Amino acid sequence: MTFRTIALLSSLLLLTACSAAPGTWGWYVIDPTTDNGWTNIRFLIRGFTSTIQISVLAAVASIIIGLLVALPAFAQTAGCACPTGSMSSSSAQSRFCRCCSGSSMACPL
Fold first, then answer.
1. What does pTM read for this prediction?
2. Is the four-CA dihedral 55, 61, 62, 64 of positive or negative sign?
3. Closest CA to 96 of 86, 85, 81
4. 103 phi and psi, to 5 degrees?
5. CB-based contacts of 99: which residues, under 8 Å, 6+ apart?
């Protein structure tokens, strides 16, 4: 089957669900012409602000956690632990350990 055939059959299946008799979808639950409908609409609107607040808090928390995980990888001193006098004259080692001069930690190179 081609993608076009699968898409056509899927859309036909979805459209047949719309052909049910009127009133079976339950729209009367939020019908503004009834008292129960207005009560349900007010309930939905009150929950909207809570939903937005929770979404914003989740986004802020994910940004903070992402930064806590990612920023150490960008640190200038990552993997740099050279004690005084352990640096050789090679440019590669001095390039990696230039920030640790005077440190008492062991050099990883």
1. 0.44
2. positive
3. 81
4. -80, 155
5. 76, 77, 80
Tokens of 15: 């459209």
Q: Which amino acid is at 81?
A: A
Q: Which two tokens stand for residue 76?
A: 């200038």
Range of the domain at 47: 29-74
**Domain count along the chain:** 2
Q: What is the pLDDT of residues 84-101, one digit of tens each?
A: 554 455 554 444 555 555
62 and 86 co-located in one domain: no
| pLDDT at 48 > cutoff 90 | yes
User: Tokens 């989740």 appear where?
Assistant: 58
Please indicate, yes or no, whether residues 62 and 89 belong to a single structural domain of this protein: no
